Amino acid sequence: MTNINELSLAKELIKFPSVTPKDFGVIGYLSKKLKQMGFSCKILEFKDKKSKPIKNLYARLGKNSPNLCYAGHTDVVPPGNIKDWTVNPFKPSVKNNYLIGRGANDMKSSIACFVSAVDKFLKKREKFNGSISLLITGDEEGLAINGTKKVVDYLKKKKEKIDFCIVGEPTNPNKLGEMIKIGRRGSLSGKIEISGTQGHVAYPHLSNNPINTLISICKKLKERKLDKGNKNFQPSNLEFTSIFVDNKAHNVIPARARAQFNIRYNNNHNSISLKKRINFVVKNICKKSKCKFNIEFTVNGDSFLTRPNKTIYMAKNIIKKITKISPKFSTTGGTSDARFIRKISPCLEFGLVNKTMHKVDECVSLKDLKNLTKIYYHILEDYFK
């Protein structure tokens, strides 16, 4: 079998217009490629009443411990207006030593780098003490209901043990080698609906304006800081993302007002404590204003931290040696599928530079592709010494 080149494989993966939740055959293509390398592959399709079916892949080579896993996703965000791109986003092109295409950065190229690294490793070490696995989802950019979360549940039921996981998300702000993610803040979303009494604006005493109550709630929740952060995490923050009143009449006090918010929180909190905090504020203000309220919460993932261990420090040293940059341990950024994987395995996140992810002309430098492949290869070498 010929060598698997990271650039060639990245191009092939990008050609699939796999905008969440559509797959267009990319999971099957990757599964076939891994089978040719000797992996046992299981395509897992999950669905429920509220979401469309999603294909996922769990592939494993070897039966012994330790099991080193790589996790990633083949789904991508929509390209937006294709006319804004200098190339067709699903016809990858190399320009000025950069690979351009949707998923080049986030994160099909990272998958290609790991597969290429495994190919090189196996050609040098046909026999090694342990197993290599890949957990690939098609539902990271979307609702994340039928993706990694359910694959993890499946692996739990099958008593499949993962000893360590590398999540290949683009973690570096500007240069390859700058940052290793060892945790993430949690995410809690909420919708607050305040119900008052509708009436004429000329007779406010006969009405109860829910907007006034909602403004008081927003002010109260924003004026008190959640925390100051700690040595591992930046401060938690609550942000209102929309305020909505369904009222087009200028002379009518509305019956209802709604607000939507999101909290990104560190390990000083959990979703239960934050729900209690929000409920307490809303309940007290509504009691004074004599308004009714309803709150809906959605927990997108609790905060987590992987304490740096031998494997993480090993990866850090390899990254420094290849990139000449000493990577910083970080918990910044949004959520990732590491929030699910950490329930069954310690993990780190390390991939490409994230400057162009989700943007027009998303791209990755060819030099970074080669270096990331080298990094993954040497992690495999050192892990299975």
Query: What's the end-to-end separation, in Å?
Result: 25 Å
**CATH homology superfamily of the largest domain:** Zn peptidases
At the first level of CATH, what is the class of the largest domain? Alpha Beta
The low-pLDDT segments are none
How many helices? 9
Order of helices and strands: HHEEEEEHEHEEEEEHEEEHEEHEHEEH
Number of strands: 19
Largest sheet: 6 strands, mixed
> The CATH topology of the largest domain, please?
Aminopeptidase
Number of domains: 2
- Work out the helicity level: 25-40%
Shape: elongated
> What number is the mean pLDDT?
96
In terms of structural class, how would the helical and strand content be classed? alpha+beta
| Strand neighbour order, sheet with most strands | 1-2-6-3-7-18
Strand content: 25-35%
Any idea what the CATH architecture of the largest domain is? Answer: 3-Layer(aba) Sandwich
Radius of gyration: 24 Å
Write the layout of secondary structure elements.
Elements: H1 6-14, H2 26-36, E1 40-48, E2 51-61, E3 67-73, E4 93-95, E5 98-100, H3 108-124, E6 131-137, H4 148-157, E7 164-167, E8 179-181, E9 183-184, E10 186-195, E11 199-200, H5 210-223, E12 237-244, E13 252-253, E14 256-265, H6 271-289, E15 292-301, E16 304-305, H7 310-323, E17 328-330, H8 338-341, E18 347-349, E19 363-365, H9 366-383
Parallel strand pairs: 3-6, 3-7, 7-18, 8-17
Antiparallel strand pairs: 1-2, 2-6, 4-5, 5-19, 9-16, 10-14, 10-15, 11-13, 12-14
